[in-house]
Protein 1
Amino acid sequence: MNKDNKAKINRTGLSRRKFLGLAAAGSALSMANPSALLARSAPAPINPVLTDYVGRLCYNENPLGPSPMAIQAMSDDLDMSHRYPDWFAESLKGDLADIHDVSDNNVIAGCGATEILRLCAFAFAESNGNVVAPNPSYSQFPADAGFLGSDVYYSSLNDDHRIDLNDMADRVDNDTTAVCITNPNNPTATVLAADDIEAFVDDLPQGVVTIIDEAYHDFVDDPNYESAIDLVRRGKNVVVIRTFSKAYGLAGARIGYGIGRQSRINDMRAWQIFSTVSRPSLNASRAALDDIDHINDTVTLNNQAKQYCFGYFDLWGLSYIPSQTNFFMVATEMDNSDLAAALSSRDFYVRYGWGMDHHIRVSTGTMEEMEGFIDAMYDILNQVHAGGYTIPLVTALDGNYPNPFNSTTRISYSIAKSGQVKIQIFNIRGQLVKTVVDSYLLAGKHAFEWSGINQQGAPVASGSYFYRMTAGDFAQTRRMILVK
Ligand SMILES: Cc1ncc(COP(=O)(O)O)c(C=O)c1O
């Protein structure tokens, strides 16, 4: 935060001591000297940055953009766009095999980690079996496995927001076909130690494959962490997933890959359609692999951004989860949907949910974005504390909790303007299951509970369901998973 901003904050009239009273319960109050903090956090300008999408701190993207070498490689090949790319990303797979010191047969590349996770579900989930995954965590694999008819057993996180491997192991039974770990975890940004993962893998029944999603690998600096690709090299029943969407800054190009035991990669290939990685994306990713400086700049900026924000959180007494990724979670005494709405009214977009009522998840951005974010947080919390702040009402389908759920889930939504609102639940084939809301509602926050009962009053089967809200021109759809 520069001097001008600081002066602005001082004028708001709330003393720092009072402001500390906003701290989330349990956090330690820091007596850090603000000028030391300012000196420490002064950002070195890194690269010219994108001016578009400013404040989009909700998708864990790279604020520096793609590597210039990747952009060049895409441009150089544009006039070949009439030709199909390699059918199964062979050229990229060769490079990846070299970098990771595995054979080409251990590599599969696709349209983002998203495609690779889905291929894992096709290959490893069975309708008469189950998979085990933590919650909250990245939910795509268990959701896809559920789609395909597998049972899904969810384990919990520890008190320090790490995936609880003992709890995961306890949920594995004779019908378990796969377990999925996100390391570092999304949304909590915590990591598991390499030794703990290896011991966990070694204790699993032989046929159970471990999927380890390392989307945020490049940001980790915990010395106990190590990529699980070494487990693949040592022949273990593991598939590791990586993406070019995060540190490599190629989220829009859609490239991800898996490194796994050869037999497992073959199982996945059987389900893959051809040419899911486009020519420009293949070229971009191969060039990006060579641009070590871009990765270093990205990691440096990410660390600066986190250090800057954490410095203020310490000063203000807000509790946050130490982060090993390019996003972090911070807690305030505000309801997190209110805080997210207040931030979005100032053009900062963050995520919340996962059954964590007071945490928001914030992606790191440029230093300018982080300064704006910190200013916005300060202003909002300051005004709330002074009692003079009205939470801006937005129209939004806030989400449901718990999700996944066993019997009942609570769906929350808010309406900025009074009017007719409709919320309907659909199954994965798009068939209407139930109209749950169809009435004129007053502006404000609303919620209802759904217990998996359809329009005819009968219980519905386990699986994924979509719920869609329409209010005037507004329409939004979300997904929930019923696990019986
Ligand atoms: C843990 C994790 N895995 C996978 C993905 C999806 O990555 P991709 O953009 O490569 O499909 C994300 C995206 O946010 C993620 O957080």
Protein 2
Amino acid sequence: MTKINKNYLELQGSYLFSTIAKKVKAFTEANPEKKIIRLGIGDVTRPLTPTIISSLHSAVDEMANKETFRGYAPDLGYEFLRSAIAANDYKMRGCDIEADEIFVSDGAKCDSGNIQEIFGEDNVIAVCDPVYPVYVDSNVMAGRSGKAIEGTGKYSNIIYMPCTKENGFAPECPTEVPDIIYLCFPNNPTGATITKTELQKWVDYANEHDSVIIYDAAYEAYIKDEDVPHSIYECDNAKTCAIELRSFSKNAGFTGVRLGFTVIPKELVRDGVSLHTLWARRHSTKYNGAPYIIQRAGEAVYSDAGKEEIKGLVGYYMTNASYILKGLKDAGYEVYGGVNAPYIWLKTPNNMTSWEFFDHLLETANVVGTPGAGFGPNGEGYFRLTAFGDYNDTVEAISRIQKM
Ligand SMILES: Cc1ncc(COP(=O)(O)O)c(C=O)c1O
């Protein structure tokens, strides 16, 4: 008889965004005349920029000719893209990362879920609380989480690192030492960042304890402040303890196009084995490479015109972020994030729970956001709005919230 992977039965509830979608669907069916504004999910709304579009078109044309047609892409990514990434995202920031330490993929969500596969099942992971749910759920599926602890939203074998307003939503290094530490800055959901000095403490801690940091920098393009690092490899000795995840989704609007990459330095060794080698093996066995057409579009992101256009996209969303931040502050809300990140993290008013505020916002202002509790116990009492909406919709949403 076929057996299922019983770890899946440990997953708690349905995925956050499907619960939201169900609630919004029910509200829309009951109130078809109301115009809903969605500032919930982290999807972009601006179209791809002209330079990206023209690179996509010419790559499509190449596929129509026998001489320029491409079949399977190299498993680890085309050299032209890996070199562009190494030069622009790393060398230009003083990080010594080579093209062959970059593994091109179809996005950071898959990589953040898949990367745990190269680690033993008995590793203890640490996550921020609140956290991007994929890190936890993918470890539950792998059998690394232990049992769900009834009524807490937590698992017995996971170390939770509280991110509260008292610590600026940046966790302390835990006293119980984890084997794998997930960090994400600029943070989803809180919009918090940490300085290079603070990140260096994590790198030193990981090196001292032989832990590995999985550093999700999907939102690095939103960093404005000089003292906030774009890459963990800006810190000394990060190459012996850190893996970095990146995405083209939030900077270049590739959420539907799909492109990302993972960096594993060759110096990163655990249990006497190179993690670079393990990931290369995993990638070449289970992955057949991101499409050529999309990798050409990724290359175009690093052209001079591409860089300018991407600045424009990020600027558009950050205008929204500033508008939300100011509008909510003016309305008396306690708000965080939104400066180096496209996420605004607000304290729910009148001691409402996150889901109570979700319902209140949906029913009163017809605005959809994301309940903080969906990201972990310490998200309770908070709520996430995103800056990825249309500017006019964002203005309208804030005006409705101000009238609530
Ligand atoms: C922290 C974080 N990492 C990764 C992703 C997913 O990125 P991608 O679109 O490249 O899969 C998201 C998307 O919301 C995210 O918030």
